[in-house]
Structure formats: C-alpha cells, structure tokens
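On clarity, I found the account of how folds are encoded harder to follow than it need be. Since the whole study asks how a given chain folds, the encoding of that fold should be made plain. For the editor and my fellow referees, an illustration may be useful. An entry of this sort, consisting of the sequence and the corresponding backbone structure tokens, reads as follows:

:::
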Amino acid sequence: MKKFSFKPVGIFLFLLFIREVRANTRDNWKAEFQSMIETVKQHPTKDRMMALAKTISGNNRYAHLLDAEQLELSEKARVTLCKIPNHARYFGEEIKRMQKEVADNPAKIGLLFDYNNDRAEDFRILAQLPSPETVAVLGEFLSDDIDTPSVRISPGSDWGENPPANSYASACMITILGLRDSPVAAGGMEGIEGVVDKRPRNLAKIRGWWEEVKSGERPFSFLGQAVEYRFLPDGTWETLAIADPPDDAPPMPVRKDWEVKPAAPPTVAEPADPVWPWVFGASALIGGLALAIRKWRS
C-alpha cells in the first residue's frame, strides 16, 4: 500500500507567493510611473505628455483598484502635467488635425472610425486635466458643430457609431472637469428617455458661460484649489488667491479588492476577510483526504 500525505500548508504558501508577485508588480509600476513623471518634467515632449496623460486617464478609470500610494502618485502626475505649457493644447490640436484629415478623405471609413475613437479618448484625457488651459481648449470646441451626425443616418445616436459634434463632446467634458461652479451639473448633457431632452438647452447654457469666462467677466476655479482664474483680453489668464477657500477637494477613491481593507474608526469592527481563500483551502484539504482514504481502501 502506497502512503499518501497531503500538506495544506502548500496551498497557504502558494497564496502567499501570489500575493508577493502582485506586490512586486505594483512596486514596479510605481517605479516606472515615477520615472515617467520625472522624464516629462525635465523633457516634456508631446509623445511623453501623451503617454503620461493616457496613464492618468487609465488610473482614474480604475481608481478603485489602486492603493493609496498609487493614487497619490497619479495625482502628483496630474499636477505635474497641468503645470507644463501646452499640456491641453496638444490634445486640442490633435483633434483638429484628425478632423481635417477625415474631411480631406471623406470616403475612408476606417479613417473616420479611428478619428471618432481617438477624439473621444482625447476629450476624456482633457477632462482629467483641470487647468485654465484646458478650459480654453474645451471652450474653443463649443462652437465646432462640423461633426454633428446626420439624423437620417443614425437617429438618436451620440457616442455610438457616429459620435456627437465636438461642441457637444466638449460640453460633456466641461461638466466633469471639476469646476467649483460648473454651469451644468455632471451628467446634465445626457439625454433621458421619456423626458424632454435638455441637452440643447444645456449646451446653450454652457456656451453662454464660456463667453462670460472668455471675456474675463466671470472668474472660475476648481474643486480643492485655493485660487481662481480670470482670462485676460490676450487669451492668457491671471491667478488670484481665494481669501477663504472652501474645503471641497474631491475624496480619494477607496480600493475595494480583498487585499487592502479601508481603515475603520475604533468603534466600528473591521470588515471581515473574504472567505474564498478559506473555501479554496478547505476544498483542497477535503479532496486530499478523500483521495488518501480511497488509496488506503485499495
């Protein structure tokens, strides 16, 4: 009779190994991201700014999966990028360049598809860069209705196969840019089925707001910042300190996976550990015992 031994400690060591691999992956990511930030700060080329901006946008999309250090590093990257001249104008120029390229080649469906995807990504990136330059770039697009889809081709479509005009896309980004006194609340540019569509009215409202901002009549500021900005006649802006800025910085996202539990007040019990590692270990142990008994009987 062959002896059979089962060691559940092996499963525990395997789980520890997986945890260590994931930790090393995060450490490598942080080191590479930090290097990217420093490189852009010292040598801010268009390609490097584009790569950093895309990473920031991705971090924002999956913020609930990042730990506190990763979130802080991403915010550092955002602040660094917003201080570099032309950080927003680059993306605005890219959208205009692609738009002209498509206009010169109207028969190339693939080119139009790429343009729609790329400009959507560029607009999403601009929404992650709260700065006066970004406001100026988005404001310029509010008068661009060239790409308005034909109702006969795609009734009711917006961000589908025929995305909306740049004016509408820009207005959407302005509502989620983090303005302290946004002309329209986030989501205000979305249509609601069965309800009178407020999008045209809200687009006109945002255009009116931009005219006041562009003329210098209306200052603007961003959540969490202690300064406000006012545009000057030459298109530049002045930065003014706010005497008593409100404490309205957006809260940092909380990581939700099982490895990191959010800190709890002393009077509140910490959330329970997930049960799946224990279920996995118990199942393996039961399976091992069953196999041992079968071999013993044989």
